[in-house]
Design a protein that fits this description.
Blueprint: E1 2-6, H1 11-27, E2 32-37, H2 41-48, E3 53-56, H3 69-91, E4 95-98, H4 104-113, E5 117-122, H5 129-134, E6 140-143, E7 160-162, H6 169-173, H7 176-182, E8 190-195, H8 202-217, E9 224-229, H9 235-245, E10 249-252, H10 259-264, E11 267-270, H11 274-283, E12 287-289, H12 299-309, E13 314-315, H13 323-335, H14 337-350, H15 355-367
Parallel strand pairs: 1-2, 1-4, 2-3, 4-5, 5-6, 6-7, 8-9, 8-11, 9-10, 11-12, 12-13
Helix pairs in contact: 1-15, 3-4, 8-13, 11-14
């Protein structure tokens, strides 16, 4: 069986694609997976570490305004269609899987005209701009939230399958004891996990530090330890702060084995990208969510609001975020363990641990291949 996966740009598209690719390779004999992504170094580095066949195309993100970038975009769009055409002719996939990034656009469009079955995956509540265009051309549409269906034309809703967002099995299987040992953290301490997404988040880093300062001044840090994923730009000053403050901590620019951080965490303070939320709910973790305010179509805000309305998280807008407010919410949960457990229980209820398996079943059905 040959499967082409088109994705790139951000971890929100790449991570679920990797979960699908890993499951395919592990569970389907003689499967061959080809990944089509962007020409950024980060894409190729991440994918090469997973031993996947990889090829890049010239596709660029959609310009949001009418300006000179449209000329460059149009040229690269046309070039990408030529590149994808020859990739499809050479690789001859049984199924094309688009993960929602703009790299999916030429792959799914051409697969439609070449008679190749395709599946598009939407990780967020709101449809991505790419998936809005592709809905009519795709053979199947996999969604993570039931509300997403209302954004689709009624003529395409028969294609929809509510399956959740694929995550790697290690996220679910790693034990707390193993994680604490691997990260050299203490058992019995309350672990805060600050996560700004795949690129880090300066505002979250800054307010996180200020919040720890407030907790320290009020002597609430006696039984608290911190995991902090900073992104590249803020790594050194965040690391230096914790070194001088003497707060038990693990500071990283990025964690490839992020399953240890989730397994060790008692409370997550994070952005609300779809993959992050799938991992949080998969583990059943309580969370305080700060949506990225410039995300396309406010999709992180919609994601966070959904979890909050289900009682599975608290959310704060970045414009309203202060260390004082964040400290108050953390202390509210620290002081009320029953509330903390209830939020975790509701978070777990929203998780879909079988999402990867269900999406692979859709791929098998489209390709008419059985394990």
């Amino acid at each position: 069986m040959r499967v082409l996966i088109a994705a790139g740009g951000t971890g929100g598209h790449i991570c679920p694609g990797l979960a699908i690719a890993s499951y395919l390779k592990k569970n389907i004999p003689d499967v061959r997976v080809l990944w089509v992504g962007g020409n950024r170094d980060t894409d190729s580095k991440v994918l090469s570490s997973h031993q996947l066949e990889f090829t890049s195309i010239s596709m660029r993100s959609w310009p949001r305004k009418f300006w000179a970038k449209w000329i460059d975009f149009a040229w690269n769009l046309a070039l990408s269609f030529f590149q994808i055409f020859f990739i499809l002719i050479r690789f001859r996939p049984h199924v094309v899987v688009g993960m929602g990034s703009y790299h999916s656009f030429p792959a799914v469009i051409l697969s439609y005209f070449l008679g190749i079955k395709s599946l598009i995956c939407e990780q967020n509540v709101n449809l991505s701009l790419t998936n809005r265009f592709l809905a009519r051309f795709a053979s199947r549409i996999a969604i993570s939230f039931s509300q997403t269906k209302r954004f689709l034309p009624s003529s395409e809703r028969h294609k929809v399958h509510l399956v959740g967002n694929p995550i790697r099995p290690e996220i679910l299987k790693t034990s707390k004891e193993k994680a604490l040992k691997a990260l050299d953290l203490k058992e019995g301490s309350f672990t805060l996990f600050f996560l700004g997404g795949s690129q880090g988040a300066h505002t979250l880093n800054r307010v996180g530090i200020e919040t720890i300062n407030l907790l320290k001044k009020e002597r609430y840090l006696k039984n608290i330890q911190v995991i902090f994923i900073t992104g590249r730009k803020d790594l050194e000053w965040v690391r230096e702060y914790f070194r001088l403050a003497g707060v038990p901590s693990l500071i990283r620019e990025y964690m490839s084995q992020i399953q240890y951080a989730y397994a060790a965490a008692d409370l997550v303070i994070s952005r609300s990208g779809a993959t992050t939320l799938a991992e949080i709910t998969g583990r059943g973790l309580p969370a305080i969510l700060i949506p990225y305010p410039y995300a396309t179509d406010c999709h992180q805000l919609e994601n966070a609001r959904f979890l909050e309305t289900q009682g599975a998280a608290y959310s704060m807008l970045e414009k309203d975020l202060t260390a004082k407010k964040l400290k108050a919410t953390i202390l509210k949960l620290l002081r009320n363990q029953d509330l903390l457990k209830e939020i975790g229980r509701k978070s777990k209820h929203l998780g879909v641990p079988r999402a990867t398996k269900m999406i692979v079943s859709l791929i098998q059905d489209l390709g008419k291949i059985k394990c």
